[in-house]
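Journal club side-thread
Mid-discussion, someone asked how the predicted structure for our own chain would compare to the paper's figures. Pasting it here so we can look after the session.
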Amino acid sequence: MKKFLAVLVLFSVILAFAEWKPAKSITVIVPWAAGGSTDQVTRMITVQMEPLLGRKFIIVNTPGGAGSIGTLNAWQAPHDGYTWTANATLDITKYAVLGYMNVTHRDWTYFLCAEAPNVVVVNPNSPYRTIVDLVNAMKENPEIPLSSAGTGSGGHVALEIFAEYFNVKYKHVPYAGGAPATTAVVTGEVVGNMQFVHEIADMARAGRLRILCTLAAEPINLQGYGEIPSIRQWYPDFPDVRFHFGLIIPKDVPAEVLKTVGEVFEKAANSDAFKEWAIKQGLKPVCYYGEEAENIVEQVARRVTWLLYDRGIATVSPEQFKIPRIGQ
């Protein structure tokens, strides 16, 4: 009996570290519109992973509910390793406190490949030529229309951090993703937004947007455009606003799936092709997974969930999910 148990334990250990060889294509549900920040990163990283994993990725764009609809669809699919999702770290942390899902950020495993700063852009025909111009205008007019990818999205969180810091108000105009939110600035439907740099990069290079600054602590060098100054050039103690993007898989999929994905992801995220693309789009290529990625997401949750709750956007207290504030 003891020998049988020993063999069983050994077999279990071997199985846990076995290589996963997917038998079919893998679906990645992007819970935002095509062309947006998450969509861009997802398509680029999965293209690098396909030859390494030996299977095609099927990208399914399912926008709506500030990304919660597609995320819930991914969670409700079988947890067998064949359905993933993708998102920004701040988005996956918000759904529980917004009352959209009972699943929290702690129920997922993360593979983060890009760090993205938020940038402030306006329509080139607007009178705002510097960030100081926009701040002063918002202090006088609380109805300046600014777009985002939806309630609680990265651009909306950036707007709220901005509004809280300067004690100003604005008219929030949400869209079903970063691409339509940016198009709205180009067409003049709204004055501007504070989306991620890779969502506005092409329009900025084409002269169809005016970039005022980045909300990150350091300037950005955007290829084909030039240097984007940091808001700290004018306001030295403004918070550093940037978040990570990547692939997200339910934590309870088979262990061999996560092990194989981690190995393949590391090679893809460190590939020259992915790094070159990321840098061109103003992103910082990174490679975080496992405990390191989970710690990053936990810190984002402590910051974002309480911001949304304190600003009256979230309906459920982070305390309900045992999410402490930063510093507690």
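Post-session note: Confidence is low (pLDDT under 50) at residues 1-17.
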